[in-house]
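User: My advisor, Dr. K., asked me to get a structural model of this assembly before our group meeting. I'm new to this, so sorry if the format is off. These are the inputs:
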Amino acid sequence: MTTSLPRIFSGVQPTGNLHLGNYLGALRNWVKLQHDHECLFCVVDQHAITTWQDPAELHRATLEVAAAMVACGIDAGKHIVFNQSAVPGHAQLAWIFNCVARIGWMNRMTQFKDKAGKDRENASLGLLAYPSLMAADILVYRATHVPVGDDQKQHLELTRDIAAKFNNDFSARIGDLGLGVEMQAGDETVNGFFPLTEPLIDGPATRVMSLRDGTKKMSKSDPSDLSRINLTDDEDAISKKIRKAKTDPEPLPSGLDGLKGRPEAENLVGIYAALAGISRERVMAEFGGQQFSVFKPALADLAVEKLAPIAAEMRRISDDRAYVDAVLRDGGERAGAIAERTMKDVREIIGLLGD
Ligand code: TRP
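Assistant: The format is fine. Below is the predicted structure of the whole assembly, which you can bring to the meeting.
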């Protein structure tokens, strides 16, 4: 009875400014995926509050991320762009998954360990349950594929564990109600309600590192604005940041091996390759043996060419508040209709009276 069309869900947190890492690592791939999938792209505002967020800033960033999705080329008419808190089904299903998942599963999550740090007892309960809400985001739409970076693979495995345990705990009831679909679970064919969602990792992930320190990920929380290229940066800011990017004194090597132990060179070559849509080998073939004084201006030109139009579009869209509101309202309504159908079935499967 369920749709077997590949359905994509992905989310991004509205915390801080979007930057080149978000673009090359996520948004750009989403734009490609929309051609042959049905897609939902969500600004996960309820995930953001698992750590403290200033309310006015959370509000601003939520609108900015929605504007960025559209500015990067996501078709909000054909697909669904919305914010998580607009659809109650996410939190409702997350609660149910909190009762399906085990505390031990959550305790093993490396993102929780990193974010909670030494003082785990003092982390929010929401931070521990974060993956349960993420599973709900995906499964309330019964999404089959999720484009994610490497750092989210563990959460996606947990999403499958939750789906499998739900399908198994309630298998008799799912069968009686005729709500199951046949699916492959390892070697077995099982009749389940929730799909076992697969990650979609687009080739070798483009990990964009800080422009000030090639060993650290480009991050919205880095105090130095020179460490990242924001998606709202204008031409001057983009070129200036690339000109000032940290490098080493050697010329560029002519092969990939020569990048070992040179994180800043490796990062800039990776950024060039990703923006130009060519392999790093080709970048090396073109610039090997040249100084950074030659490579950086070429990279700056390329970055301006690819990113400045997005920044201009973001400014244009962000200034049209009524438009962004309309995109989110419409997306929220369409997402809400799908989520509510799932929740109705879920309540029936579990035996909750509901409304
Ligand atoms: N946890 C993801 C991140 O920090 C964001 C996210 C929330 C997400 N829900 C999701 C990503 C569902 C993919 C699917 O990047």
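One thing worth pointing out at the meeting: The mean pLDDT is 94.

User: Perfect, thanks a lot.
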